[in-house]
């Protein structure tokens, strides 16, 4: 049995920060556009006063949340995201506020896939999804060579463990 390192050492691509920021801008932008439209409708149609106050309160909270999602969270996510894989285990460690350290035995791995959406494609990155009997684990924003090598490595380790059992 191999020694499990206390902390995985592999990192995500630094472009992950940019991708997470762009995603947050898109999602929060849509929400703020909807709130702006509702505020305009409130002023045009003169809805009840409490509706206007409620909309302004939701807008203020949404702006604060957008600042968190766009400027602070991506850097924290990147700073605290680590992964590692060896013949026996896949380790995933992430989270700044809620720390998660997952150890997945290679014998339990059933599938490994690489995914690439439009933003990841623009930056030449992939995410790697590892499926087990009860759950799925994702390593986001890896460079293409690293992602494909990791996918093949995990698939190889999982196949070796199936043959040995």
From TrEMBL:
The chain crosses the membrane at residues 20-41, 53-72. It holds the Pfam family bPH_2. It comes from the Bacteria. The keyword Transmembrane helix applies. Coiled coil: none annotated. Residues 78-154 form the YdbS-like PH domain. The keyword Magnesium does not apply. InterPro entries: YdbS-like_PH. This is PH domain-containing protein. It comes from Paenibacillus taichungensis.
């Amino acid at each position: 049995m191999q020694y499990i390192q206390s902390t995985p050492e592999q990192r995500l691509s630094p472009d992950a920060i940019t991708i997470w920021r762009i995603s947050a801008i898109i999602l929060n932008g849509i929400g703020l556009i909807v709130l702006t439209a509702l505020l305009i409708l409130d002023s045009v149609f003169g809805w009840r006063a409490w509706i206007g106050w409620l909309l302004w309160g939701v807008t203020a909270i949404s702006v604060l949340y957008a600042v968190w999602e766009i400027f602070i969270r991506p850097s924290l996510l990147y700073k605290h995201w680590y992964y590692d894989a060896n013949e026996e285990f896949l380790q995933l460690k992430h989270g700044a506020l809620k720390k998660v350290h997952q150890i997945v035995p290679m014998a339990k791995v059933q599938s490994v896939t690489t995914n690439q959406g439009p933003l990841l494609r623009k930056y030449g990155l992939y995410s790697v999804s590892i499926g087990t009997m009860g759950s799925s684990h994702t390593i986001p924003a890896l460079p293409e060579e690293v992602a494909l090598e990791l996918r093949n490595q995990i698939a190889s380790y999982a196949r070796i463990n199936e043959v040995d059992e």
